[in-house]
Write a structure and sequence with these properties.
mainly beta, Elongation Factor Tu (Ef-tu), domain 3, SH3 type barrels, 9-stranded antiparallel beta sheet, 2 helices, 19 strands, about 50% strand, Myoviridae_GpU
């Protein structure tokens, strides 16, 4: 037996008694970009991180190759409806670091006898990357409390007014940092400092200092 790979309970293999393979395996992904509309000008794009990977493939299920088509379809439907996440194994290793979930299945049933037995089927399966969240453990220390107190007593640089539809607020001065929320059009925010093109809002929050997104009023 030659094992090609697997996804959960579905084993892709080729042997003298059983053949279960897939055709047209497609893997795609697109980065995330936020589009901020600007009155009478072209919109501004802001990079918001990598997108999720999507996998699409077609399974050929034939009774003549030792496969029970309806049994394999039931496996896929069970994993889909329970929201099970599994690694998609190709060869001896996962095709991607994260697991995948089934978001859609479409089965074409072929060669059905008078008793309703299905002898062949063609199933299209769509998978999407599933990123397991890890809750960070927050530790409160004397230094943390001191920094918080210092920030609250810090003199502000001024106030910004958001001039576009929305702008991301992040936990660091970079588009690679995590998004904490959004500031909406017309909202006013107090800023304490500016460095390398980013305003510090205090409390570990940052927003872009580009004049395309907001106007600063000092004092």
């Amino acid at each position: 037996m030659v094992k090609i790979g697997s996804f959960g309970d579905v084993i892709f293999e080729v042997s003298q008694k059983k053949t279960l393979t897939f055709n047209d395996l497609e893997m795609k992904s697109s980065p995330k970009w936020d589009e901020h509309s600007i009155h009478r000008n072209k919109a501004k794009l802001e990079f918001d991180g990598p997108g999720l990977i999507e996998l699409n493939h077609t399974l050929l299920l034939r009774a003549e190759q030792g496969i029970n088509p309806m049994k394999e379809i039931t496996k896929l439907e069970r994993m889909r409806d329970k929201g099970e996440a599994h690694h998609f194994i190709l060869g001896q290793k996962p095709i991607a670091p994260n697991k995948f979930v089934i978001i859609d299945t479409s089965a074409g049933l072929r060669n059905i006898d008078q008793k309703g037995n299905v002898f062949s089927a063609e199933v299209t399966v769509s998978l999407k990357e599933y990123v397991e969240s890890k809750s960070p453990v927050k530790k409160t220390t004397a230094n943390t409390k001191q920094k918080t107190a210092t920030s609250s007593n810090k003199k502000s640089l001024g106030t910004i007014t958001i001039t576009v539809k929305s702008v991301n607020i992040r936990n660091g001065p970079s588009t690679n940092n995590k998004i904490l929320g959004q500031a909406m059009n017309g909202q006013k925010l107090t800023v304490y400092s500016v460095k390398n093109g980013w305003y510090s809002l205090g409390g570990g929050k940052y927003i872009t200092a580009s004049s395309s997104y907001s106007k600063l009023k000092k004092g």
